[in-house]
Write a structure and sequence with these properties.
The strands form four sheets. Strands 1, 3, 5, 7 and 8 form a five-stranded mixed beta sheet that branches. Strands 13-14-11-10-17 form a five-stranded antiparallel beta sheet, with no helix packed on it. It has two domains: about 80 residues, Immunoglobulins (Immunoglobulin-like); about 80 residues, Immunoglobulin-like (Sandwich). It is about 0% helix and about 45% strand. The protein has about 210 residues and is mainly β. The chain contains no helices and 17 strands.
Length: about 210
């Protein structure tokens, strides 16, 4: 049995299986774009058309007829990885259906603009830091800190520090490097002002959630 739909739009992601015939289509492609990434619509209907949208019009010109597109990496060295959504709106005579997929334009090397994803609570005796959000596909985390502080543990998206200083300090620099989803190493750092008491200074990224 098949169904026909008129004058309506369905919005769903690949994770929501529906039983009607039009949902045999699927938007497929990589989660992370390194140099470039190709995306396509599986089971694209004959004579259908498609509108491709990347975030808030990050791409000004896209092939609006082909069921497959290739996106080049929009990230720039020293910048930030770009987290956005790829949307495909498929039009046929019977229905319009929309697919969406979160994607990341990956940036390797030193990410100068990503300081705020390192959050932490630091006092004169030490403290803790972590990453929020955790970069897609990141692993093999390595932490470092200046001012003769010590890193208590490695390998995780969070860590703790211990201070061995006999005198008070005003500021420390925390750095984390990790292997990103493209297999290259990324570096992020942040500065933390230390208070004059053991209450420390709490620095947290904007619009973030507490680490899980």
């Amino acid at each position: 049995m098949s169904y026909k739909y008129k004058n309506q739009t369905d919005n769903f992601t690949n994770e929501l299986p529906l039983s009607v015939s039009k949902t045999s289509m699927q938007l497929i492609g990589p989660d992370v774009i390194c140099d470039n990434g190709t995306f396509s619509i599986k089971n694209f209907p004959t004579k259908a058309t498609v509108d491709w949208i990347v975030g808030n019009d990050l791409y000004s010109q896209l092939n609006q007829a082909s069921p497959a597109i290739t996106l080049n990496n929009l990230g720039t060295p020293g910048g930030s990885s770009i987290y956005t959504t790829l949307t495909a709106i498929v039009h046929t005579k019977e229905y319009t259906v929309q697919f969406s997929k979160p994607i990341t334009f990956n940036v390797s090397g030193i990410q100068e603009n990503d300081h705020d994803i390192i959050y932490g609570y630091l006092s004169q005796s030490g403290g803790e830091c972590g990453l929020n959000p955790i970069p897609e596909g990141a692993h093999d985390f390595h932490w470092s800190v200046d001012c003769d502080w010590e890193v208590d543990m490695q390998g995780y998206y969070f860590t703790t520090f211990s201070s061995r200083n006999s005198h008070e300090i005003e500021r420390v620099c925390v750095t984390v490097d990790f292997i990103n989803a493209c297999g290259t190493r990324t570096y992020i750092y942040n500065y933390f002002d230390i208070g004059s008491t053991n209450s420390g200074t709490y620095s947290t990224p904007k619009n973030s959630l507490s680490p899980k």
